[in-house]
Specification:
Strand content: 25-35%
Number of strands: 33
CATH architecture of the largest domain: 3-Layer(aba) Sandwich
Distance between the termini: 57 Å
Oligomer: single chain
Largest sheet: 9 strands, mixed
CATH superfamily of the largest domain: Class I glutamine amidotransferase (GATase) domain
Helix content: 10-25%
Number of helices: 6
Structural class: mainly beta
């Protein structure tokens, strides 16, 4: 009897969970794009049971029993037309050419796509549809692509973000709000216009906006609730010169106001001018150590203050060092120098601040975008030619640390030998993931072993509880496609 009772309880619990899942109708072209697949997967991650229906096969009745309709830009607009204009189901639209059929375009003409874009300009950061992003340009695509826009939305549309040319790219219309009467008098349910175009992939910021659009569309309209804090700012400990962000989450009836405040040295909190979005970010410097931050959030029902978050800043007191130098060419007349941390371009990217041990001349020195790597051209060098600084090189600390000529780490041998590769071995740590190595305090500047094997591998059963990093160039004998194979005992290798 006990076994039968337990099985019955499990079955009922599973049925209840399944019944609570929301249902989404996802309209796409017959062969979904990779972007469509990514969005379908995202909807599933957000807890929806997704029913994908092709544009040509779709019918108005497909929306029956659904909690949400999402229209991809991959559909043929004529295949969707007015099928869901009167549907009393919240709808998130990414197809520019059906804005007229939906009654959302003031001119009854449809929207457009703005090609070659990767950002949208958030203008109403306090609205839930902004996904907690700050006002201003936010990168929403992993690579430039089309942004879906609508130049003339109906007057009831409230704009949250625009494309860089000013056209609305994220906006919403509340249920019951007036639409273009040529098509339909009022919105039968919430409507959202979203920037996403089906050939693109979204960044974390883009996903924040997408997730917020979905959440707002299916939420129950609220015009009376007082504001409440749902996410408190978290205390942070970071190294100096790190960009940090404090974030507050809230609920209630919009519109909202947000005001971040700061306290230094245990003193009273004061307003931070211009800090009026759910996310507040700064570049952490030593004077910020110990500062506390809180947010005052309000709506028509009053205000509420979040808990205070403390910022702890680890001060950089170590000068930079030369970490790695690798050359190439026949003969080698170019090489790269990697510093242990970002350095000041004014001192690090000056050819006259370096000398070669073979007496050769350094022609040029150019700083890489990573802030750590300097690219050089020079007279021919050989394997082991020593590069040294002749003038101080500063890091980017609030109080710069200086690498002086002659100090440890101020010179390095350039690797140019063909037929070998530099290998760094890091001993004495647990874990099996690549991140266990890259997050270890020794990595990358303090390897236990540095050697130059003539084969691109570590010996079998060389040690236990260690990780390896290879550094160097692989020169192809001819142009073409090559396959590289990697193996490991327990971890997944990474390039």
């Amino acid at each position: 009897m006990k076994k039968m009772f337990l099985i019955g309880v499990c079955s009922l619990a599973f049925a209840n969970v399944h019944a609570q899942q929301k249902q989404a109708l996802f309209l796409t072209t017959a062969t979904p794009t990779a972007g469509d697949v990514a969005v379908s997967n995202r909807l599933a991650q957000l807890g929806f049971v997704v029913t994908r229906v092709t544009d040509t096969a779709s019918q108005t009745s497909d929306a029956n029993g659904k909690d949400l309709i999402v229209v991809s830009s991959s559909v043929g607009s004529g295949n969707i037309a007015t099928k869901f204009t009167a549907s009393a189901v919240p709808l998130v639209n990414a197809e520019s050419a059906i804005y007229d059929e939906l009654g959302i375009d003031e001119n009854n003409a449809g929207g457009a796509t703005f090609t070659g874009q990767s950002q949208v300009d958030v203008i109403d950061c306090t609205h839930p549809l902004a996904g907690g992003l700050t006002n201003g340009l936010n990168t929403v695509y992993t690579a430039p692509g089309p942004i879906v826009v609508l130049g003339t939305p109906v007057a009831s549309a409230q704009i949250v973000a625009r494309a860089s040319d000013g056209r609305p790219s994220v906006f919403f219309i509340e249920a019951g709000a007036p639409l273009n009467p040529i098509r339909i008098a009022a919105a039968p349910a919430r409507r959202v216009g979203i920037f996403w175009e089906a050939t693109t992939f979204m960044t974390p910021a883009g996903l924040d906006l997408f997730d917020a659009a979905i959440a707002w569309a299916v939420a129950v309209p609220d015009s009376t609730s007082p504001v409440g804090i749902t996410r408190q700012p978290a205390s942070l400990t970071v190294n100096e010169q790190t960009v940090v962000a404090f974030r507050v989450g809230y609920t209630g009836a919009p519109p909202f106001t947000v005001q971040w405040q700061r306290s230094d040295g245990g003193g009273a909190f004061g307003d931070i001018i211009g800090a009026n979005c759910p996310t507040y970010g700064i570049l952490a410097t030593p004077p910020d150590n110990g500062a506390r931050f809180q947010a005052v959030v309000g709506n028509a029902g009053g205000t509420v203050t979040s808990t205070a978050a403390t910022l702890t800043v680890n001060i950089d007191t170590n000068p930079p060092t030369m970490f790695l130098a690798i050359g190439g060419g026949t003969p080698p007349t170019a090489f790269d120098l990697v510093f242990s941390e970002p350095v000041d371009p004014a001192s690090a990217a000056e050819a006259l601040n370096y000398a070669l041990g073979n007496g050769g001349t350094i022609q040029t020195a150019t700083m890489d975008a990573d802030g750590r790597t300097v690219h050089f051209t020079s007279d021919p060098i050989t394997n082991g030619t020593v590069l040294r600084i002749t003038s101080p090189v500063n890091d980017l600390a609030f109080t710069p640390n200086v690498l002086m000529p002659g100090a440890p780490g101020s010179s390095i041998a350039i690797i140019t030998t063909d037929g070998s590769i530099r290998r760094h071995q890091f001993n004495g740590f647990g874990g099996i993931l690549v991140s266990d190595l890259t997050n270890n305090a020794k990595f990358p500047n303090f390897p236990d072993v540095i050697d130059f094997p003539t084969i691109f591998e570590t010996a079998v059963n060389a040690a236990d509880n260690y990780g390896v990093q290879f550094l160097g160039y692989v020169t192809a004998p001819v142009s073409g496609n090559y396959h590289f194979y990697m193996s490991s005992t327990t971890a997944v290798p990474s390039i």
